[in-house]
From TrEMBL:
Superkingdom in the source lineage: Bacteria
InterPro entries: Uncharacterised_YgbA
Protein name (Swiss-Prot/TrEMBL): Nitrous oxide-stimulated promoter family protein
Lineage: Bacteria, Pseudomonadati, Thermodesulfobacteriota, Desulfuromonadia, Geobacterales
Pfam families linked to this entry: YgbA_NO
Species, as recorded: Geomonas silvestris
Length: 107
């Protein structure tokens, strides 16, 4: 059976969200933990796996930005960490010309 347009769009959105998570966490890890480009320290690798799982399991459709979500699926500690990651990485990625990430940073 062929996937519907809605299913394909949902999968594309999920893939894009995970790609953005990887970019943000990668930038954070390089800046804070001194990891090489394309690599993550063990702490950030674990956090990325946690964040990916949370994104894939999101019950809301359409998925809102996490800061506007009525359901907080991240633990309190991890929620603080993702806020720190987004704040740190968002500014740096925008200054490097990644304007496509402005949407994720502000919304």
């Amino acid at each position: 059976m062929l996937p519907t347009m809605e299913t394909a769009n949902k999968a594309r959105k999920e893939h894009n969200d995970i790609k953005v998570l990887k970019a943000f966490i990668g930038t954070y890890c390089r800046g804070k933990h001194g990891s090489a480009k394309g690599e993550l320290c063990p702490e950030c690798t674990g956090f990325l796996a946690y964040a990916e799982l949370r994104r894939r399991k999101c019950p809301l459709d359409p998925k809102p930005a996490c800061k506007h979500c009525p359901i907080h699926c991240y633990s309190k500690e991890r929620r603080a960490l993702i806020r720190e990651v987004m704040s740190y990485s968002g500014r740096r990625l925008m200054l490097r010309g990644r304007l496509d990430l402005v949407w994720h940073y502000f919304f």
